[in-house]
Amino acid sequence: MALKTTRKENYPQWYQCVVSAADMAENSVSPGCMVMKAWGYGLWERLQRVLDEKIKETGHENYYFPMFIPLSFFQKEADHVEGFAKEMAVVTHSRLVNEDGKLKPSSPLEEPLIVRPTSETIIADSFAKWVKSYRDLPILLNQWANVVRWEMRPRLFLRTREFLWQEGHTVHATMKEAEDETITMLNVYKEFAEKTLAMPVLTGRKPEHEKFPGAIDTYCIEAMMQDGKALQAGTSHFLGQNFAKSADIKFVNANNELEYAYTTSWGVSTRFIGGVIMSHADDEGMVVPPRLAPYQIIFVPLIKKEEDREKIMDYITKLQNELKSKTAFDEKIRIKVDTRDKNSVDKVWEWIRKGAPMVCEIGARDVDSDGLMVKERIFIGQPEGKKIMKKDEFIAQIGERLEYLQQEMFKRAQKRLQDNIRTDITTPEEFAAYFANSNEWIEDGKQGKVAFVRGKWCGDPATEEILKSMKITIRCLPFDQSGTTGKCLLTGKDATIDVIYARSY
Fold first, then answer.
1. Dist CA 230 CA 275 (whole Å)
2. Coil, strand or helix at 64
3. Phi, psi (deg, nearest 5) at residue 303
4. Which of 212, 309, 365, 454 is most enclosed, with most CB atoms within 10 A?
């Protein structure tokens, strides 16, 4: 019961098929926007809960700021407004009036309002009010919110005009404190991506032309999707004193001197879910890591005779109660019993398409034998994909088994990443020939036609035009620089900077 399109046949169409078959989201009547359905939003809720705990563990607190930002706030920081100008949605009127049966804008605003594309400017305004002395610092805050950016080529979860995200903003007394903050949060994202989403990532610094508008430095986590393309999954920005100067965030230091503060910002979004899809889904549908799954176990009653209903449901209830004392990943196991009045085979396949880690079928024979049929999602289509287990055995092993499935998903994705970073390309000619190929699905972690290249870059800003002509990008300057000299893969000049080149989403 594979999807209509496979990864190998048409990867972009396969992605859309996965989202649709898993009933995660759909395009909205509002152009460029999406409706997140229960399973897709359930993934976001889980993501939000786990990541929110990790953010709070680092000393941050949640705030909320307005989604409407005065245009003048953006104009204070030239690089910032230039970077977002083409994506901004603008409110210019406050109401509508009915003229001859047609609604028309009325009451022009004294100052246009920007619908939040990001919140650095409006939060900096609050920082300027709150910060007076070094004793007020640092301020560490986080916000969960929606954002609007006028994307011209929307794609569900990856790029929509309205999306959900988390954005952290902090203000510090010293440059070192602010720089340390950006790296701390980058590492929080890396750990979350790898341990919760089972998605291995590379970390590094963005080149100058790829920085966040107004930032001194931008750091990122980059993941490899199953077609070899890169996905920027999260960013952390050291803003220096740029926004402090534009918003006048000053404080009196310990020497009784007035100086500008240092700020940071960092964030991830519903794009993370797109990354999970393209990291783990297969030709049967979605595959969800157990740590992320809204429900880790789905019980599907197989009721062929009405007289068996009571004993089957009683059996499942007792099994649920016995599982209540069990945990996985230091949490209670999340269970759902699918009691819908629907064909049981169809229900099983619905949950397989959604990617639920375990789907368990229980019929009258299973009750009589004190067992159940267990289907583990990542092994569907393989001999080990389903097995009959005794109830007590299933209960005893459940936590360990969910941990195994989580780790197996990470290992598969990690192998794909490790096996598809080319380091043997050393000349511009080899580089151009490599990227002349098209991307394809990387089967079982094997080397695909095109994925990542780790090689040298001379750092010349003029190379940005070469990158554009080849439709590739420098994803990051990895932290583990080799310190060796080689040839820039774009110009052939001597170069010492190691970078990751790739096509990207």
1. 10
2. coil
3. -105, 100
4. 212
**Residue 86 CB partners (closer than 8 Å, separation 6+):** 150
Instruction: From 437, 17, 460, select the one nearest 229 (Cα to Cα).
Output: 437
Alpha helices in 265-419 (DSSP H): 271-280, 309-323, 344-354, 364-369, 391-419
- pLDDT class for 1, splitting at 50, 70, 90? low
Q: What is the pTM of this model?
A: 0.96
Rounded to whole angstroms, the Cα distance separating 439 from 430 reads 17
Angle at alpha carbon of residue 396, lines to 390 and 398, rounded to 5°: 95
- Return all residues near 128 (Cβ < 8 A) that are at least 6 apart: 247, 248, 249, 250
| Count of beta carbons in the 10 Å neighbourhood of residue 464 | 16
**Reduced DSSP (H G I as helix, E B as strand, rest coil) percent helix, strand, coil of the chain, to 5:** 35, 30, 30
Cα(165)–Cα(48) distance, integer angstroms: 9
Residue whose token pair is 């050393």? 426
Residue count of the chain, please give it. Answer: 505
Q: Residues 320-362: pLDDT tens digits?
A: 999 999 999 999 999 999 999 999 999 999 999 999 999 999 9
Rounded Cα distance, 45 and 22, in Å: 17
Burial degree of 20 (CB within 10 A; 0-12, 13-18, 19+): middle
3-state secondary structure of 281: coil
